[in-house]
Amino acid sequence: MQRQVISLRQESRQSEINIGYGIRRNLKKLVLRTFGQFPGKSILISNKRVFRLYGLEVMADLKTVDTKVFPWLIPDGERYKSFRTFESAVNTFAEIGVERNDLVIALGGGVVGDLAGFAASTYLRGVRLLQMPTTLLAQIDSSIGGKTAINLTAGKNLVGTFYQPDAVCIDTQTLGSLPARELVSGFCEMVKQALVASPELFEQTVDLLRRFHMDQAIIATPEFERLIEAHCMFKASIVINDERESTERTDSRSRRILNFGHTTAHALEKVTDYRYFRHGEAVGYGMLVAGELSKHLGLLSPDKLEQLREAVNLCGQLPSAGKLDVTQIKAALKLDKKSVRGQINWVLLDDIGSPRIVEGRAISNKVLGLSLLEGLGISRRRIERSH
User: Are 103 and 120 a contacting pair, CB within 8 Å?
Assistant: First the structure.
């Protein structure tokens, strides 16, 4: 079993990111190293599918030491990242008698991690948190950096906190149990991160995606583990320098660059009531739209745009977006939580590895419409009707 450790020092605390194949089996060692002693109570938040695969194993490991483990399961799906689920979580904490030195463990994908993180950050003004991401998307992105959130009817992730986990435990063995769509979702997030990171990480990511289509067993290799580590190190390097995503920063190392593809993605998720797209799938379309916008503004060359398209295509089949209503998408775009002084802030590309933050006022309604048409594959008739 290989184990890589990334130390993420931020304003609020230091998080240790542990990466390895099968490291969930050594969870008690990680807990002891992180906290110096075992918590009196551990709340294991997960969903039914993930708990069935790994939950009992994690509980059994922790029960060998002096800690009581309480499982608490939420339904699977983005729509359950809600105030109702959050209220149920913190009421459960109260019923169990959770104290500030107790531990919340988030075992699952991004929905579990975001909900558990938000509950941990607010209950008693903050209890200990351990992220155990089991999806590729969560392993390289949502479990790292301390963003927690729940959704509102008005939009995604509109209520949340910055709350760094005490530690992150990334067991790459869990990738072998992912459904095909979860892998596509994670691959899209990988491509997103690589596009704003560097040509080197982009080439490394695209190469592994090509090889995955020839041999899917590559996700269980040390080489793929090193790719996950490279993505985690990149995200950590951004978070360290801009933990709370300053709205004043527009440079290429701003945390805001990690939102590449997300402006359109969140709008797509909202107009489909969080039931049609997985998050990474929506990000896949968001990257295509951002690429088209970059082209129309004269930022991204046609050959680089083609590389972007090829990379998204390598992620796998995305659900069709051709029948979505452009008027609804544009209305949802206006609710983007990253807006500043009423202006959407788009993350676009000058080149692969060279992101640029562009205010919405620089993008005409016509250019936005054309980019939605080309990126989402929506009929021209729908675009024209939306003007």
Answer: no
Residue 279 falls in the annotated catalytic set: yes
Q: Alpha carbon 124 to chain centroid distance?
A: 26
pTM greater than the 0.90 cutoff: yes
The single-letter DSSP state of residue 170 is E
Model confidence over 77-92: pLDDT tens digits?
Answer: 999 999 999 999 999 9
Q: Please say if 231 is a catalytic residue.
A: no
Dihedral of alpha carbons 292, 323, 181, 333, sign = positive
pLDDT tens figures, 272-326: 999 999 999 999 999 999 999 999 999 999 999 999 999 999 999 999 999 999 9
- Residue identified by tokens 């608490």 is 72
And the tokens for 333? Answer: 């775009």
Amino acid identity, position 3? R
| Distance (Å) of CA 206 to CA 49, 64, 231, 239 | 30, 43, 13, 24
Among the listed residues 41, 128, 147, 270, the single catalytic one is 147
**8 Å CB contact between 198 and 206:** no
Query: Rounded to whole angstroms, how far apart are CA atoms 223 and 382?
Result: 44
Q: Give the three-state DSSP class for 257.
A: helix
255 catalytic residue (yes or no): yes
> How many Å from the N-terminal Cα to the C-terminal Cα in the chain?
57
**Residue 339 is which amino acid?**
S
Taking the C-alpha atoms of residue 240 and residue 237, their distance in angstroms, rounded to an integer, is 5
Is-catalytic flag, 244?
no
Active-site annotation holds for 189:
yes
- Confirm if 307 and 201 have CB atoms less than 8 A apart: no
d(CA 153, CA 175): 31
266 is catalytic: yes
